[in-house]
Every structure is written in structure tokens, then in C-alpha cells.
Amino acid sequence: MQSEEIVKFLKTKKIIFWDFDGVIKDSVFVKARAFEKLFKFADQSIIEQIRQHHLNFGGVSRFEKLKIYLEWAGINPLPSHVEEYALKFSEIVFNEVVNSEWVPGVLEYLKDNYENQIFVLVTATPQKEIEAILTSIGITTFFRKIYGDPVKKHSAMAEALSDFNVELEKSVMIGDSESDYEAAIKAKVQFILRTAPYNSALAKKFDGIKFGNLK
After folding, report:
1. Rounded to an integer, what is the distance from CA 138 to the centroid of its chain?
2. Strands 171-175 and 145-149
3. Number of domains in the chain
4. Cα(81)–Cα(59) distance, rounded to whole angstroms?
5. Are 134 and 44 contained in the same domain?
6. Looking at the structure, do residues 89 and 150 belong to the same domain, yes or no?
């Protein structure tokens, strides 16, 4: 679909669930670089494995990823180690996410339509961190609800649909990863894929609506 057609289609929905990284901000590679920096002591093959896993599973919580990456790097993934590395990751990544590029057309769509539609953010970024990021970039008021980790995306969508009393056919989720797609399926919400170089495998097999930019 062309961007004009996507925009027209989105306006037919009552509620839109938005992922953040790769959908609102082009920040997926920013986080890939942060993971690389975090594990710079590891062998290059491990660093590349970590990078690829992150790009393939963008919508998965960093805490879940860190359990895997620590083990790959030869570190016992104890809860205390996961917490330590998650804190370091947040310190590295916050400003880079804030300063990353907007996905073209998304900010304009949010500004123009947030009063007429219900926008809900569903992300794997920790709750306090995503709230701070949204405040920093000035878009908190566009969202009626903001769900971050540890709330699962499918649970967040189910809760919001119930709270706002919206029928499933009037809802849609915009995501960029396999885990976003799976969450939408679980919640029985229509899924739209924002395509990017890192999700080409998903784009090939996904036969629903997809777009690169909104303008």
C-alpha cells in the first residue's frame, strides 16, 4: 500500500496500538549498537550473534534477551547480573533513542489524529524508561495508555480493548517484529507491519498490510 492509502485506512480504526522502536522512532539499530557495546569484551562471533538475535526479535524484553546474551558471553545469567547489565544498557541507550530519527510521517499522524482516535503504546522497553523517553520527546499526551515491560503486549491490548470498550474489528496494531505479530495474533487484533531492512524475512512471509513510511 502507498502511504496515503495506509493513512486513510488507519483513520477508519477507533484504536491503534503502536510499538515504539522501529515504528515511531527508527531506533532498532541504536539498540543493536548498545548491545554490541555492552558485550564488546566477547568474541566477534558472539557479538554478531547478539546483534542478529536483537534484530530478529525486536519486540522481546531486554531482560529476556540479556539472559540469553550473558550465557552466550560466558556469564552466569543470575538475576543480579541481568539487572546490572540492564542498567548499563539503559545508560548507554537512552539519549541515543531520544535523538534517533522519527519514522517518516508518524509524528504528523500522531499530532493530527490523537484527539479523534485512541492511541495506545505497547513496547518491550521498561515502563519507567519509556515514560521518560516519551516525556523527553514530547509525545506523552498523544497516548491514552502506555504499556512497557513487564506487561506483555497481548495482555496490554486485551486490557485496553476492554477498558475502552472497542470492538476487535475497530482495532489495529502497528509493529515491526515477529514478536509484535505474535502478540497481535494472541490478542486477535489486526496487524500492520512497518517494513525495514532488518525484518525482510518477516516481510516476505507476511501477507497482510505493510508500509515503509507514512509519508
Report:
1. 18
2. unpaired
3. 2
4. 22
5. no
6. no
Q: Rounded to two decimals, what is the model's pTM?
A: 0.91
Q: Which of 38, 73, 98 is the last residue of a domain?
A: 98
* Whether residues 64 and 48 fall in one domain: yes
Containing structural domain, residue 70: 28-98
Pairing of strands 190-194, 15-18: unpaired
Report pLDDT digits (tens) over 153-203: 999 999 999 999 999 999 999 999 999 999 999 999 999 999 999 999 999
Per residue, what are the HEC states of the chain?
Answer: CCHHHHHHHHCCCCEEEECCECCCECCHHHHHHHHHHHCCCCCHHHHHHHHHHHHHCCCCCHHHHHHHHHHHCCCCCCHHHHHHHHHHHHHHHHHHHHCCCECCCHHHHHHHHCCCCEEEEEEEEEHHHHHHHHHHHCCHHHCCEEEEECCCHHHHHHHHHHHCCCCHHHEEEEECCHHHHHHHHHHCCEEEEECCHHHHHHHHHCCCCEECCCC
Q: Are residues 103 and 134 in contact, defined by beta-carbon separation less than 8 angstroms?
A: no
